[in-house]
Amino acid sequence: MGAFLGLRISVLGSFVAFLNDKPMSKLPTIRAQALLIYLTVEAALGTFEQRREILMELLWPGMPPKSARKNLRTTLYYLRRAVDDQAIPLLIADRNTVQLNPDYPLQLDLAEFLRFFESSPPQWAKAIMRYRGDFLSDFYLPDANAFEEWTAARRAAFRRQLLGALDGLAMQSLQLGDYDEAERLARRQLEVDSLRESAWRQLMESLTRRGRRSEALAEYEACVKVLWSELGIEPSAETERLREDIHSGSFATQGSLSQSFEIASDSTALNRGQRSWADGRRHNLPAPSTPFIGRERELSEVKQLLETARLVTLTGPGGTGKTRLGLQVAKAFASAEAEEYADGVTFVSLATISDPAFVAHAIARELGVVEQQNRPLIELLQHFLVGKEMLLLMDSLEHVLEAAPLITDLLAAAPRLNVLATSREALRLNGEHEYLVPPLSVPDIARSGSAADLFKYESVTLFDQRAQAVSPNFRLTAENAPAVAGICNRLDGLPLAIELAAARIKLFNPQQMLERLGSRLHLLTSGARDLPARQRTLRDTIDWSYNLLDEGEQQLFTRLGIFLGGRSLEAVEAVCDPGLKIDALDGLESLLNKSLLYKEDGPGGEPRFIMLETIHEYAREKLVESGEERQIRDRHLDYYLFLAETMEPGFRHHDQLLLLARTEAEMGNLGAAFEWAMESERFEDAARLVSAVDYFFRYRELHLVEGYRWIKRVLPMLEQIPPQRQVRLLLGAGRLAWVNGDTSLSAQCIQKALAMARELGDRHSEAWLLCEMVISSSDRPEKYEESLNHCKEGLAIFRELDDRPGEAYLLNIIGELARLVEDYDQAQKVYEESLTISRETGEIYRQFALKANLGYIAYHNGDYERAMDLAASCMKLRLEVGEKPWAFNELFGIAGPLGMLGEPEKAARLLGASTALMDMVASNYQPSDLPEVAKYIADVQDQLDEATFEAAWAEGQAMSMEQAIAYALAE
Fold this sequence. Notes:
Blueprint: E1 7-10, E2 16-19, E3 22-23, H1 30-44, E4 49-51, H2 52-59, H3 65-82, E5 91-93, E6 97-100, E7 106-108, H4 109-117, H5 124-130, H6 145-176, H7 179-192, H8 197-209, H9 213-231, H10 237-248, H11 251-254, E8 276-278, E9 281-283, H12 296-308, E10 311-315, H13 322-334, E11 345-349, H14 359-367, H15 377-385, E12 390-395, H16 405-413, E13 417-423, E14 432-436, H17 451-454, H18 458-470, H19 481-490, H20 495-502, H21 510-520, H22 533-547, H23 551-559, E15 567-568, H24 569-576, H25 584-593, E16 598-601, E17 607-610, H26 613-626, H27 629-647, H28 656-665, H29 667-679, H30 683-692, H31 694-699, H32 704-714, H33 723-739, H34 743-760, H35 763-775, H36 784-801, H37 804-820, H38 824-841, H39 844-860, H40 864-880, H41 891-900, H42 904-920, H43 930-941, H44 946-957, H45 961-969
């Protein structure tokens, strides 16, 4: 072959550039190299045109625009000179944009790497060969954080793509029995990422299957050392199980790493991810636990529909994979390469919501919009979405269809919003485009062809994959291929039905399974006439799976239907165990193995057992039929009442954040327990339950209005509750009513409860009620003496009872009163005393408030450095403990002092960002903080002319939360 006449660039590994097959020597600056890299890589990803302002900020951040523009012109000149011997220009530029000429002869190793991934898996090996090393592994651009962030994001994305390909090919090699190749691919993964535990398992499996058991065990020891030295963790339970199987010699019969696959066809068969910002695009999409199979046509059609339709509904019976298809579409739009939906993608699961009235609350919770008592929630949502370019994926709407008009209201208010919904039936809204999700492709049993030919059918691929997950020795052969084709055909290609059938491969070979399916599906046309035929098929399939359980397993499965959203092991044992004909733990393991449950890690790593939505619905029906429903609902209420009251004291101690997270995870069950308490007229228990979680409602703002509704439903039953319980209920009612803006009801509840507490001699409740009485008047100077006396009285009681959290709480209130009357020395003294106690007890939320309050005092005393340091340390503490969504609360505390330290423009930007982010989540400043807000803004305004202040303020309002936090913490 002759020399390549043009530009050849390598960015995978070290940066290398050749012109006409000779090393380039005319790029004198590193920024010229960086510009060339950026333009070529983005062009390979589909973006040829770049705005000059973006390039200026990327390469010369913080430089005055005039200077940056001049530098860009000079750098473009160098680039053109470097390739001036070519007939075709490298760059096409005008006053506003720069772009790589698509006709210029250019070879980029990354483009070839990506191109091979667009083909079938056999082409992935060629892509892997192109990967010489991590993207720009030794390229660094000083003083250009944006470029470095871009590099890091691309590097991580390309590395994930490589590892995913290696993992997929290794799994395929294991399934095909090519264990040499599987070993090579596993070792290649570990070269890239030595902490990749799944690759260690693939390596152990490939060695074991070739009889090299001692080497496999040695690799396990190597894995242990790497994980411990790098991360300080032990191998996962899955790796431990594999090691035990290899060590005991039972590996061949008990399975392999393939068992890590779980069924995931419907809305709850997904590992739920935390809200994240991946590759620069905001989303909260859960990570699927199994590979996505086929559906290329459906993916393309749905994405095309969303280009012209603002509301697309994926319809079909339960188990067709509507949720999985919706998530795959959303994932494509959430990638950094996607041009659509600049404000990201938000997933809203409605699977655990039974009341249409709470659909808006579920949307608000995922968007981070805080409810307010005095404003309709729909108005807050519309206000939040009005300028957003966003995709909202609303999952499982069929059981809350009465709430569907809410979607119309949101679309009307937000012209750049699109909604992708999943439902078993259409929403029947104007402008809706219904897309019926078809079954997976199935073979024609009359001419199904060879075993190899069957893999072109998605249903057969799914059956084969899931069957191997439970029985690694299963292979599609000429002998069993007709039966597998028959199974997929009989089940109409329904993913969930196929997965449930494949899960029985340990009990029956495909021919036996086909025969049993035939005997069970003869009632296809005798189900409810208003149900779609495929839904009746699925019901029969689940019924068949249920009938294969023994009596004890059936009883446990039925009782598990009482839970909503998930079940801990402790909850299962408490609610289901009494009178159970099987050991609960054994039964759970059996149901997991039969794919009727799956497991995910809850807060603190606690295992939680989840049912697919369709299976859960079936279990609830069986519970009603069993005649045990009332008894099980009573036990469910008893357990969650016990759990709530057990957790409640810890809300103010070291486990505060963990317990709040556990309460969040259990809100579906707590809500169901509360509903049953009201329905069965167990009003005292309803009062105990809401009283136990009122702290959660108060400190998790997204649930404030929900908690207030609980309170208002119980209050009319007050006289049917014992006096001691009345006091506690009224205390919680007073708290939640005040936070929700109902000051009149709050005052009534607190005054009545205080009188009752004193009459009953309930000293502890009396002290807390004195706190609440003071808080309700903490912004009224004329009440200072009266409030201070209440505080002293309550403080004496807390100290008498040795209640340290209560003491810290009241000291903070005394500090607020002192600050109100400008006694800053006294305020600082009690704030610091309260902070010392809060560090001792571990109450993180109290520490947030106290650091902010001490910052105000430092500001008033002219110690602006300390004021800023306190606010910054509070922001860092929020980030450290996982409170990132609320870290922006400290922007205001950093901005004020910055303005007094000679950076008024930066301060104005942060003030603008703070108010915009507050408005975004529909939150408000505390009443006691409003004077500080006004003073900080006024002090900054005094140092700037009106135009400069307004321009800086507007720049801050345009910042995202991440940008504002990074800007605030930047030195």
